[in-house]
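Figure 2 data, in text form.
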Amino acid sequence: MSDTRAKYDHLDHNLLYSMVMDGDPEQVDKLGAKWNSLKTDMNNLATALSNDLAGLAKTWSSKSGDEYHKRVSSVVTFANTVAGEFGSVDSGLKLMSGPLREAKANAEDPAETADNDSTVGGVVAGATTGGAIAGPAGALAGGVLGGMFGHDRDEEQRKQARERMITVVVKLADAYDTTAQSQWPNDPQRPPGELPGTVGNNINPISDSGTSVKPHTVSATGTGGPAGHADLVTRPPHEAPVAPGFDPSDNSGE
């Protein structure tokens, strides 16, 4: 048994089903689009600053000009770095929405195997056959035996459906984990030390703890199931950042 499967093997069908169906791939795509927009903004900022510096260098040649160019160039470099990180978030979310759509399409509703139709059918068939052979007594015995065999069949169908549901969940969880590890580094790039505000002035220094990308839940994929279970399937292991200003409940764009 794989490590991923072991996390879900003890859960019942209802919980497994809700963990997948609570996900919303459309909302994941919308969240990715927000991050892509931020990426474009940062790239445009870097390009504009770079062009301005090139023009300024033609008329400002001095030690102070060199220092200014150095500091603002660091902003250009860092803006491009942040843009790349925003793009990675967008790419990761796009890679997650596809497997989520597939999982939802393959998820089996537990209600479909909770009707005991084989038990009922077995009772009717057994009673009919037994009655034809041995009269009322045979009908009673046949009904009991038929119901027992039908019940066993119902239980086997439910067991098989749950096993298929576990497979769906494990596949989705593995896809999330692969995406998180390949797209989202654990340690964001540190800002360069030459950024304005880092040395002896009245501007608040920029923290060296990383970029402004903060880990947060992917609310787009839902939170079904109890704590400690749902997060393994309905959001990635390393939790995608939520774009600043993005409201998951805002459907105005639909």
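Caption note: The two ends are 42 Å apart (CA to CA).
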